[in-house]
């Protein structure tokens, strides 16, 4: 196992896993001084010819999403990362790429943990990261709970440069198959759209068997139709199967994508093919493999 750290830093790289060519991404597991672990991925952004970083907000996660390797690890949640640990990890990776490219093109809080659940430390770290020139931009991916989104909309709230919100279902029951404590999409979408008026927001929808049936095409199109032109894109993401997950990749991805592209006028619909299937890039997947965490015999029910 690789174990490196710059003198004086409070986090260490426990293990690194380079992707297969032609992807130049490198996935790292970090360990804190009290032995909590978290992931950070050096992502090669081909169109920019530079690295970004996918960063964790927490050591583990409490959300229990059924498409996520963190949920099925032996220690799904340990604790929040503090701002100093987040900044130290970003600095560590930035150090590795500085000679090649200067600052990271962005840091995206899309790794292990839910950024909104550790918002004070994420915002403190984000301000430091940009203020010290470690990255040009900060992005945040979130399940976007109602209370947190309301806080973003308060005057003078700090906002990242870009956000991605996880939808994954056209109604509450369907969303909760993947995100157990998800809000009703019909009540959070107006709030999400208000954020999208302030910053670019991507809506992410992971494609599984349970949410890509013919009736789901119409339900999702009806839900999203009033928000044409408000969000940056609707990103339909292939499911990257993780050990222990009860979910299955959709058997009708192509039809679902074609239907949404046809029926959602005023929306840009994109398909994100999961590179993670070959490279264990899914949230929490590398942490689980590096620590050799077994799949629990009992898994969260659908
Ligand atoms: S997908 Fe994100 S929010 Fe959901 S359990 Fe995994 S780390 Fe947590």
TrEMBL record:
GO BP term (any one): tRNA methylation
Cell membrane as a keyword of this entry, yes or no, is no
Q: What is the required cofactor set for this protein?
A: [4Fe-4S] cluster
Q: Where in the cell is it found?
A: Cytoplasm
Chief site of localization: cytoplasm
Instruction: Please tell me one Gene Ontology term that the record gives under cellular component.
Output: cytoplasm
For this UniProt entry, which segments traverse the membrane?
A: none
Any idea what this protein is called? Radical SAM core domain-containing protein
Q: Source species, please?
A: Streptomyces diastatochromogenes
């Amino acid at each position: 196992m690789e174990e490196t750290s710059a003198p004086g830093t409070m986090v260490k790289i426990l293990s690194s896993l380079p992707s297969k060519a032609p992807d130049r991404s490198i996935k790292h597991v970090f360990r804190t001084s009290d032995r909590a672990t978290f992931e950070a991925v050096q992502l090669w952004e081909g169109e920019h010819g530079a690295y970004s970083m996918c960063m964790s907000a927490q050591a583990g996660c409490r959300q229990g999403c059924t498409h996520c390797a963190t949920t099925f690890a032996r220690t799904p949640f340990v604790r929040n990362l503090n701002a100093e640990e987040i900044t130290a990890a970003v600095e560590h990776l930035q150090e590795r790429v500085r000679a090649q490219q200067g600052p990271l093109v962005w840091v995206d809080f899309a790794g292990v943990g839910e950024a909104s659940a550790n918002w004070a430390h994420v915002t403190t770290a984000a301000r430091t990261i940009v203020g010290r020139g470690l990255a040009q931009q900060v992005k945040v991916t979130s399940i976007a709970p109602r209370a947190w989104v309301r806080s973003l909309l308060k005057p003078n709230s700090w906002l990242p440069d870009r956000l991605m919100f996880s939808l994954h279902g056209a109604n509450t029951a369907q969303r909760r198959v993947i995100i157990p404590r998800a809000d009703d999409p019909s009540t959070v979408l107006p709030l999400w759209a208000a954020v999208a008026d302030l910053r670019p927001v991507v809506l992410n929808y992971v494609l599984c068997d349970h949410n890509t049936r013919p009736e789901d095409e119409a339900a999702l199109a009806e839900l999203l139709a009033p928000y044409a032109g408000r969000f940056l894109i609707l990103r339909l993401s292939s499911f990257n199967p993780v050990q222990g997950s009860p979910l299955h990749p959709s058997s009708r991805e192509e039809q679902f994508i074609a239907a949404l592209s046809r029926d959602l006028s005023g929306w840009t619909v994109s398909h994100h093919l999961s590179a993670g299937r070959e490279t264990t890039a899914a949230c929490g997947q590398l942490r689980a493999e590096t620590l050799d965490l077994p799949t629990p015999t009992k898994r969260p029910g659908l």
